[in-house]
Design brief:
Blueprint (H helix, E strand, L loop, with lengths): L1 H23 L2 E5 L2 E5 L2 H37 L5 H5 L4 H10 L32
Antiparallel strand pairs: 1-2
Helix pairs in contact: 1-2, 1-4, 2-4
């Protein structure tokens, strides 16, 4: 699941960043006296907001990726989980991806299976210790 959702998020970020960069450029309108540059402050402000949101989401993705590996290591080493058990439980980084992707839930490529489903029941704080079961 996470590869598809991560690719979806990266594609949406690229689209948003490209659109924001294009929107922030002043319009060039030729007129009789030369070239007139027209800037729409609202569009520039909106573009800046999109760019800032993209920077924030990219930072969240970096944390999710790093935290995801740490979380997997804890579940395997401390609780004795297997790789297949990890795949069956929504870990924190997977929930972050779902929450981030939900921002674009009206996009045609968004998959309803990614819809956040509320707090997950298995996190490192309440995990079952597989070493003793």
């Amino acid at each position: 699941m996470s590869d598809d959702i991560v690719q979806f998020i990266h594609a949406r970020l690229t689209e948003d960043e490209t659109g924001a960069s294009a929107a922030a450029r002043p319009a060039v309108i030729p007129d009789a006296g030369g070239v007139l540059l027209v800037t729409n402050l609202r569009i520039e402000r909106d573009a800046l907001t999109v760019q800032r949101r993209c920077i924030m989401i990219r930072a969240m993705l970096r944390h999710a990726e790093a935290g995801g590996q740490f979380e997997k290591d804890v579940m395997v080493r401390h609780y004795g989980w297997t790789e297949s058990e990890l795949e069956d439980h929504p870990l924190i980084h997977a929930r972050m991806y779902r929450d981030i992707a939900a921002y674009w839930n009206t996009h045609p490529d968004y998959q309803q299976s990614w819809r956040p489903s509320g707090p997950a029941s298995s996190t490192p704080g309440d995990a079952v210790d597989r070493r003793t079961s």
